């Protein structure tokens, strides 16, 4: 029988108040749920995401049942990414791997699921050959001085290359006034009543250019605001702001783009509603977090770039019915890995979370464990 253990993992402290809870700051911990196999395992899989609570991840139990201990890791930003910095997420992953190595695990497999894909790539890149000395805003941490034990393998499951890439791909370019999501440019409006899929290539080209331009306008505004705060002096070094229209990728509306088995729409419902609803992606940010997390030009969380710097065996699995992470994301990450010790696997009919698909959860667990066995990573 597998066993469950709560892991209190010492957290590297930050000079800034980037998490709201004083209790969490005083505790100085990030948390993980360790699912232990029935027989002692010297291999552990760590499933990561910058902000989601993976302590109840659907693969933890199945991996432990197959003889591999598994940890669902939270970062300090659990449930709230408004002030998240990717560099501090890297420290939290490093704290977890240091903790697990100290407990005697000989092999550690880093599993990036969904938004964990970019984080896993960034972590391994910096663990193998650190280059990042600050956040894009110039703040600590210096990852070249951090304790970042490398993982022995990378597994990416239903993952995208990074939050900045997703922001650029999903941002609504029709919004002309950042304070009013209903002031819209009809020439770039995905939801204009006269515009129906399939969309013509010329519109998609203009649309993608508009998305990139809006991401860069926000970045320029953020830089100007930070300069104003610095010029004003005083202790205030950051501000919050709202980003409207963050779920408007044309692939949500037109399934002939980046074709797969997915249904039209998003995980949060119809695209036009999800685009503006508060609970969907990336609506709330601080200035410094935007640069680290969402700016396509400045964020360090570029999974394709960082996978190009890893040397360990890499497994990339994607769901053919995934409404979030499209086949092109998986292919781009796979192609970026610079060596031949890699595998790309389609989970046929798999949705983003494999919700209500227990047979696919079992199949995926079997496939990942078999691959790890082939690589000599099961201990």
Automatic annotation (TrEMBL):
Keyword check for Hydrolase, yes or no: yes
Q: What InterPro entries does the entry give?
A: AB_hydrolase_fold, Hydrolase_4
Keywords recorded for this protein, A-Z: Hydrolase
Any single GO molecular-function term of the entry would be: hydrolase activity
Where is the Serine aminopeptidase S33 domain positioned along the sequence?
305-354
A Pfam family annotated for this chain is: Hydrolase_4
**Entry keyword annotation includes ATP-binding:** no
Name this polypeptide is given: Alpha/beta hydrolase
Q: Which organism is it from?
A: Actinoallomurus iriomotensis
